[in-house]
């Protein structure tokens, strides 16, 4: 497969991390994403080293990549105080990193963060401080993978420039990578599939692609620049197969984990969509 990413989907950890890896493999996936703990809570979860180790061993055997996704309430832009403040965020992120490391995962995907009523400068400072405090206490291989945002909760975190600058300003840039969400980039007005070359070149100029670790491969229910974060099945949204295929054919995506966050098929898996996107590279077929 020329320049092919490693395709997969988000899977449940019901039954354990090892079972999640097996479910992914049996659906034809070469990668997968999972929530390391309850996706709606920042409550810490003890690391089950035996179960996580089984996951890591299975992934090594099959050549599967995996990434973890932090719980929805995670917000690196949160201030120092309150029940959902910075210390709570840092503790949760470290817990996620520990689980991801034990599972043999590349890292944990974390949304850029939402400022709420904060002044932008304060919001950016909070993100950098949260990342610094987390990575200061972390010595594993798993990375923080910052995800770009669509802009539905504010303008922050939409551009490649912001993500690159946060990494540059961190005291521990080596512990930070990027996760590109295709739906978010399209909805944010950052990636126009009619001008993919321009998007790729801008990322190259910024040094963004050098630190790309994973992709969230999603079509978009809403049009370009809508700033609405609603995923659609591959080829069933406003981006379309041709746009997604062209983007992922760039050399920057070769071998990267490309995770579908779309609805499951009738069989309860992403088997059909995984076969669809793999087919773009196996056949060399265009989708105009």
Summarize this structure briefly.
With 288 residues, the chain is α/β, with parallel strands linked by helices.
How would you characterize the overall build of this protein?
The longest helix has 17 residues, at 86-102. An eight-stranded parallel β-barrel has the order 1-2-3-4-5-6-7-10. Strands 8-9 form a two-stranded antiparallel sheet. The protein has a single domain (6-283), classed as Divalent-metal-dependent TIM barrel enzymes (TIM Barrel), CATH 3.20.20. With 288 residues, it is an alpha/beta fold. The model is unreliable at 284-288 (pLDDT under 50). It is 37% helix and 15% strand.
CATH architectural category: Alpha-Beta Barrel
- Per CATH, the class reads Alpha Beta
Class by helix and strand content? alpha/beta
Instruction: From the 3D structure, determine the CATH topology.
Output: TIM Barrel
The fraction of residues in strands falls at 15-25%
| Main sheet record | 8 strands, parallel, barrel
The arrangement of helices and strands along the chain is EHEHEHEHEHEHHEEEHEH
Low-confidence residue ranges: 284-288
> Helix segment count?
9
Tally of distinct domains: 1
Termini gap: 20 Å
Helix content: 25-40%
Total strands: the figure is 10
Instruction: Please give the radius of gyration in angstroms.
Output: 18 Å
Instruction: Give me the side-by-side strand order of the main sheet.
Output: 1-2-3-4-5-6-7-10
Arithmetic mean pLDDT: 94
Shape: globular
């Amino acid at each position: 497969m020329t320049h092919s990413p490693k395709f997969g989907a988000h899977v449940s950890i019901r039954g354990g991390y090892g079972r999640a890896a097996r479910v992914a493999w049996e659906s034809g996936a070469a990668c997968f994403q999972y929530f390391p703990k309850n996706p709606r809570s920042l409550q810490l979860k003890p690391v089950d080293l035996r179960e996580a180790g089984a996951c890591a061993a299975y992934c090594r055997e099959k050549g599967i990549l995996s990434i973890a996704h932090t719980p929805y309430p995670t917000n690196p832009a949160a201030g120092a105080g309150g029940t959902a403040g910075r210390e709570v965020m840092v503790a949760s992120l470290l817990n996620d990193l520990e689980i991801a490391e034990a599972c043999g995962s590349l890292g944990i995907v974390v949304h850029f963060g939402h400022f709420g009523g904060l002044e932008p400068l304060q919001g950016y400072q909070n993100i950098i401080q949260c990342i610094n405090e987390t990575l200061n206490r972390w010595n594993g291989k798993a990375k923080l993978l910052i995800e770009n945002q669509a802009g539905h909760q504010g303008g922050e975190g939409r551009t490649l420039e912001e993500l690159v600058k946060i990494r540059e300003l961190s005291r521990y840039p080596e512990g930070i990578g990027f996760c590109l969400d295709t739906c978010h980039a399209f909805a944010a007005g950052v990636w126009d599939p009619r001008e993919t070359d321009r998007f790729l070149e801008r990322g190259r100029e910024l040094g963004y692609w050098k630190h790309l670790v994973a992709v969230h491969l999603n079509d978009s229910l809403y049009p370009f620049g809508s700033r609405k974060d609603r995923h659609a099945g591959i080829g069933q949204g406003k981006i379309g197969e041709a746009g997604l295929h062209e983007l992922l054919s760039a050399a920057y995506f070769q071998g990267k984990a490309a995770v579908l966050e779309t609805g499951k098929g009738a069989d309860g898996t992403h088997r059909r969509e995984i076969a669809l996107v793999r087919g773009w590279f196996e056949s060399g077929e265009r989708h105009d």
